[in-house]
Please model this.
Amino acid sequence: MVKGANVGLTTLSEDVGSVMVSLGWSSTTGEGDADVSVLLLDGDGKVRSDVDFCFYNNPVAGNGSVQLLGKTPTADGSEDRISFDLDAVPQEIEKVVVAASRYAGSRFGDLDDLRLTLADSAGDGLVRFAVEGADDVSAVIFGELYRRSGEWKFRAVGQGYASGLAGLATDYGVDIDDDAEQDGPERDGPESSGPEQDGPEPERPGHDTSEQPAATGQDGPERPARVPAQTRGSDPAGLSAPAAPRAAAEPEPAGPAPVPKPARRPRTAKKKVTLPRTAKKSLADNDTWRTARLFPVPALKSDRERETRATSVVLSVMAQVPEFGRRLTAGFGAPAGRMETFTEVTLPHGESPRRPDGVVRVERAGKLWTALVETKTNGNALKPDQVQAYMDIAARRGYEAVITLSNDVALEGSPLVDVRIDRRRKHKVALWHLSWAEVVHQAQMLIRHEGVGNAAHAWLLQELLQYLQHENSGCHGFQNMGAAWVPVRRGIDDETLCRGDARALEVIENWERLVRQVCLRLGGELGQKVLPVQRARRGSDPGARRAELADHLCEQGRLSAEIRIEGTPGVLAITADLRTGKLRTSIEVPATEPGYPLSRAKRLVRRLSEAPADLHIETLVGGEGAGPRGTLERLRPEPADILPKDGAQMTGFRLSLFKGMGNGRGSAETGFIRSVDEAVDRFHAQVVAHLEAPVP
Model:
């Protein structure tokens, strides 16, 4: 679509009762990011109350009809996904505005390929809109969903706000703290605080432009730009902080002082229950007393028993803990409603009935959404013929989705199971995959960081985690680098591995799966966004990107990846050198703090007082030259040794730790996967965590 065009959703698909909107962008540095927000507006173009403002501190709005699902990595960056249950949007809501904002003074000009995509409940893409001309703004309205004659339409907007999220929210009726307006940093830019006003778009085939709002003339009075403070890590522009009184612009008149009207405030959800990380002191006599568990696992002996138990455990908790069930199904196009789950259901299929491992059914406003579930545990792979049969059954019975659940991790452009889609069928069925690692991640985020509705729900999720993380459950996530791992390592040692070798491509795909799982695990433990960084060219094909990385593996013998952890000063790099058997974890810290070079070096060494003595520190300098380097142990008494000797400009520091690499393809104590997990955990806990703390 082009800017200003609009289209009815029902003209594009029949499955638009719920839709998925994705906002995406890419960054050459891998560090650029933005926050997504959604505003639900009534007939007056305003929010009914501040709870209709959906942002990262209030991720669910409209009685659950709108939910922010967080970021998902893509081939050339990441996407923020938003689930819309359009059938459940309150009737008073006439328009839904989808926007994004940057923070800490950043502008959208630092990001590339700003785009919005909209998919139906079957996962089929319906709309793509590329946003252009947003270089000098810190907030952008990507698009709008609005009602017209009882149907939902989408309008491509692409309008910018110089004053960021606070200015955008205020224009739509959200109350912002007054002191934020006074204390915010000045920002120069050609945009006003309100949206851009474009002239009417010409008529375009296939798009209805008659319903666009009339453009305002250029001669009217320009609104003064609001520049509220906007900080990352708490609330934008103090969106949930107490309000401060506005400074009086002139003396107040005599007489009784007017009673100030209490300001409405964007509120997060009601207080949630989380569980402490450390358990209470046990009342048991000794360690041989085992705590009674809701979901016991020691008796599990066969893969069939593990699959049956795991399916029943997860589906039952999904049905009993609404926040958890909604987290796992919203990304699959399910509506927000009453959920029931079933196991071992028998469904007719020719002469031999089929029994999927589970069924998820959601009821909303008298309509049913149904998904069949196929589960695998341990290293068992999904069977294409099984999944194909469930897709055919779902299509015949009018079900919406088939969900596969296993330890494998799906990659973009590389489906785990190839299924045949009968295009002649009017009803479409979506095929989705969920990793056990994702299930664990969502449970951790809820009970450790974000909270659930009550203590009983938190306890249920804790029991689920205990079950999934038990060594006998079979739900351990990606745990095997594949059959090609050993031959590729030997080929690199013998220098017999050639470009184009299919085994190298398999190793690259499994390396990407492992990195994504590392991000899920670390993000669940920290309660922060942790995403892999893809530095591919914009619009590049994922398969071509992986083939290029496979050729580099054949030539250089190294696997490399980068992950971005929210709140850290740089990108954490992981390099596995298969020639030397060494794992390197590193981060580049820019030297942006004020002061002389020696002062910066001393501050860095002081900040790393608890870091390992074998930490390698390298000074980064401008140009092509290399700066001095040394271990932290040597630099502690003499920080000046890290300063460039030839007068070169110091631009930052690279901090690195080295560790031996596991040889095995699995996750045993001597396996490669275990060694990567341990290297990342050690580096974050002993190095990166200290970089986040303020320097004394």
Q: What stands out?
A: The two ends are 52 Å apart (CA to CA). Residues 178-269 have pLDDT under 50 and may be disordered. The first strand starts at residue 6 and ends at 8.
